[in-house]
Amino acid sequence: MNKPIEFSIFVLYLAACIGIALYFLKKASKGESAFWGAERSIGSFVSGVALFATLISTGSFLGFLGIAYRLGWSLTTMAFGTGVSLGFILNMMLSGGAMRRYSELRGKFAMSGFFADRYNVPTAVAATLVVLLLYPFYAVAELIGAGLALQYLFGIPFTVAVLITGVVLGFYVLLGGMLSVTWNDFMQGFLKFGVMVGLGILALYAFGGVGPMLNKARMANPFFLTLHPKVSPWTYIGLSLGAGSFVLSSPHLVMRLFTVKDAATARKSLSLTAFLIFVFHVLGYLGVAGAALIIAPKLVKIDQVLFVTMDALFPAVLKGLAVAGIMAAAMSTTSGMLLAIGAEFSSNIYKRFFRPNANQHQSLRVGKIAILVVVVVATLAGMVQTLSIGVIVALTLEGIASSFMAPLVVGLWWRRANGVGGFLGVAGGFVSFLVVHFLFKVPLFAEALFSIPISFLGIIIGSLLTAPPKPETIEFLEAIHGQKQIARQAPAQAVEA
Question: How far apart, in whole angstroms, are the C-alpha atoms of residue 239 and residue 80?
Fold first, then answer.
């Protein structure tokens, strides 16, 4: 090991993750509210930073940064970064408060629960199946990113690096649940923001300021700040739509709204997240990708843009923090998705079809088993490098957005939407995304331009051609918007010894 300082910081980071999990072990064992929902105890600042960490994955740290290097800052920042920021703002305006009230009203912690109550069981099951199908692919991309980082910086064999990441990740998710994940994300959010934005500012300073650095970067890539002629305008629009719709409706992000103290706290946390995301992409990407074009204008492995820039500009201590930041990018996103997988499977598959009278202890155990299975499968799959991390992440988020954005927003705001429409919205969006991606030649990342409108049409047509929802569904909808008071659902059975 020829990088003792960097490696020591990396080990301290892993120890901190495990330490946080052990600290919350007892609290997380109280029941479903503690394990899945952090006892609804999280404040706006912690939640906002944790949400930022959950969204900023290795796709953002490595994959999209590489795309910025190759295809231009305008694609990854003005399309993806701005789209994500707007998505969080729309989440704050359209769904954040209502979904937080829903969780408290019904005592549920999975988005499929909302679909079951608002639409019907088939819609909820379809939503859960989409989560179980797509989230593992996202997790694989994150583990690949962590493996690449450790391999590049420490010479650790790629497969061993992925295994280390998977073991630590599974350990702290299974031990501490949402409390562990949220407070780990809080730490990781500061780490990731500091590494990317700090390196970006340092790069701008090192190369003479914004103007001189950008002039040099454009000598290597003339299209760094403009639309790339080889990239369809529909790619820019599709990526922005898909990214914004993803953060508005992805179950693992919606689940975070169930952990905060109240609806007002949910909205405040979302506004903070939007701000952090915007600064991260504007300052961080501009400096880091621009510097890489100057330092290594002929870089082939574009997922290594961050490594190249930090090797040139960071001292050993900051390199160690950067490695921890990359690991944080992989862990924070994947941990949130793992919790969503566990909650979805235990509440909407196990309790609905296999053991309806299961108590909290039994339900939690099954949810943890589901998480463990996905960790093992994703770790094994991650040991085989595949497409660019950015491509995997972008396509997965488009599939999720295609399935959930329209059913969530329409379900919250259109009273006429019914069970048939909800099912067609989820299934139609997901299937049309797959059909467009695999059977038609469309510009990169443009699938959402077809699949999201089809999802909206499915809800509208299906709802108008069939019977309207029942009066109690309308009362439920009014209650989660704070317009009407109805009785809260009794909590699930207490944990049995």
Answer: 6
The Cα 361–Cα 31 span in angstroms is 7
pTM comes to 0.87
Query: Which residues fall within 8 angstroms of residue 320, CB to CB, at 6 or more apart?
Result: 5, 6, 7, 8, 9, 10
Place of tokens 């960490």: 53
- What are the residues whose beta carbons fall under 8 Å from the beta carbon of 226, sequence distance 6 or more? 72, 74
pLDDT of 495 higher than 50: no
DSSP calls for 82-93? HHHHHHHHHHHH
273-327 tens-digit pLDDT:
999 999 999 888 999 999 999 999 988 888 789 989 998 999 888 888 888 888 8
Q: Taking all residues of the chain, what is their mean pLDDT, rounded to a whole number?
A: 87
In the chain the first and final C-alpha atoms are separated, in Å, by 48
Where do the structural domains in the chain lie, given as residue ranges?
4-390
Task: For residue range 204-224, list pLDDT tens digits in order.
Answer: 999 999 999 999 999 999 999
Say which CATH topology domain 4-390 has.
Sodium/glucose cotransporter (1.20.1730)
3-class state of residue 260 by DSSP: strand
Phi, psi for 74 (deg, rounded to 5): -65, -35
**Other beta carbons less than 10 A from residue 204's beta carbon:** 21
Distances in whole angstroms, Cα of residue 121 to Cα of each of 62, 176, 225, 430, 491: 39, 30, 48, 17, 20
- What pLDDT is recorded for position 369? 93
pLDDT tens digits, one per residue of 124-183: 999 999 999 988 888 888 888 788 778 877 788 888 988 988 888 888 888 888 888 899
Tell me the one-letter amino acid at 302: I
Grouping H, G, I as helix, E, B as strand and the rest as coil, residue 109 is: coil
- Is the Cβ–Cβ distance between 250 and 243 less than 8 Å? no
461-483 mean pLDDT: 91
SS3 content of the chain, % helix, strand, coil (to 5): 80, 0, 20
DSSP symbol at 107: T
Q: Is the pLDDT reported for residue 114 higher than 70?
A: yes
CA distance 196 to 212: 20
Residues 6+ apart with CB under 8 A from 224: 72, 73, 74, 214, 217, 218, 289, 290, 293
Structure tokens at 266: 């949910």
Helix spans in 207-283 (H): 210-220, 233-249, 251-257, 263-279
Name residues whose C-beta falls within 8 Å of residue 211's C-beta, 6 or more positions apart in sequence.
none
Q: How confident is the model at residue 109 (pLDDT cuts 50, 70, 90)?
A: confident
